[in-house]
Amino acid sequence: MNIREFHTKNELEKELSSRIFNILRSAISQKGSASLLFSGGSTPKALMNLLAASDFDWSRVNVGLADDRMVEENSDFSNAAMLKNEFINRISAAKRPVFCPLVFDVSDKDINHKKSMESVHQLRDIDILLLGMGTDGHFASLFPEDESSAKGLKDSCKDALIYTRAPAFPNDRISFSWSFLKKSAHLFLHITGKEKKNIIFNIEKRQILPVDTILKSKDINPEIYWAD
Asked: Full-prediction pTM beyond 0.85?
């Protein structure tokens, strides 16, 4: 594992943002566009603010989410709303990225899945995946002790997107599967706090958790950024 430890969250965010910009510039230079997936939760907010405050031209970047809650966008629980408030809407209109959401119709999962798959096609290849991790070891919306999540964590899962059940409200979630996420060119695990650090470093001394799919994978080399 490639683990980078920082004394402060500010140091982490500054270093990680620099890495992100370098990767995006390279991808845009090579392909004409780039794709970036964020995670929800409180941890990435300061990073989002820092990225948005730059003079970078995001107009050739497709931005999405690794997962979302199946709620309307005006809900306080919406990852899409958080991403817009903390990142997209802070960028001048001419430089804003293309947003590829996952939630379109909370009342009909079949219709929502069809529309969300259109976002998947628009994202194309993922250049950067920014994942967080919960204190229960979940990432994206792939949770322990959830049957749908267990399916989505398997390499054999053929579905790019799946619906899962979270242990906390709002329970209904939509998430990219691991088989899709692991194809990302660069995977970053952005975590803070000693409790989450212990999960990473005590992998052999605890029960198996969803994040172990990342930590034990032989197919990828995730970059772990941690600060207290």
From this structure: yes
